[in-house]
Amino acid sequence: MALELIGKLVKVLPEVTGQGKNGPWNKQEFVIETLDSQYPKKVCLTAWGEKANDLKQFADGDTLKATFSAESREYNDRWYTELRAFRIELTEGDGAGAPAPGYAAPAGRPAQASRPAQASQPAGMPFNTTFDDESNDLPF
After folding, report:
1. Which pLDDT tens digit goes with each residue over 7-29?
2. Distance in angstroms (rounded) separating the CA atoms of residues 106 and 39
């Protein structure tokens, strides 16, 4: 399941490192504010390994497109959700209501030719929209 979020980089939190049974690891959290002009949302995402190093090339205020996966885990009867960014790109948006680019199929998953063309998503697409090829067209 791949999700996308386009917004302004608000803050890059300090890098966290550690030692696991498979060797050293590092992660860095960062906050993106959506471009919704009426109700912008702040979303905290996590970049692991090399992607954490990629964050150093961006500055606060840059408009980014983050492709991420969401995963929840249970620990002591509580649930914890992580948004793990696996692609972070700079976009050409000024944050002043510029329309978000439409979804393009990832290189590893070519679009199916038998599927009819679908209307493009509106610019105000919510950040939790999925782009799963297996999803059906039913709204429920």
Report:
1. 999 999 998 999 888 889 999 99
2. 29
CA torsion sign for 45, 86, 33, 70 is negative
pTM: predicted TM-score of the whole model, two decimal places: 0.62
**b/e map 109-127, b = 16+ CB within 10 Å:** eeeeeeeeeeeeeeeebeb
Chain segment 43-91, per-residue pLDDT in tens: 999 999 888 888 888 889 899 999 999 999 999 999 999 999 999 999 8
Alpha-carbon gap, residue 99 to 92, rounded angstroms = 10
Dihedral of the alpha carbons of 23, 32, 2, 133, in degrees to the nearest 10: 180
Kindly report the number of other CB atoms within 10 A of residue 85's CB atom: 24
How far is residue 127's CA from residue 72's CA, in Å, rounded to a whole number? 17
Contact 38, 105 (CB under 8 A): no
Closest CA to 94 of 16, 7, 18, 33: 7
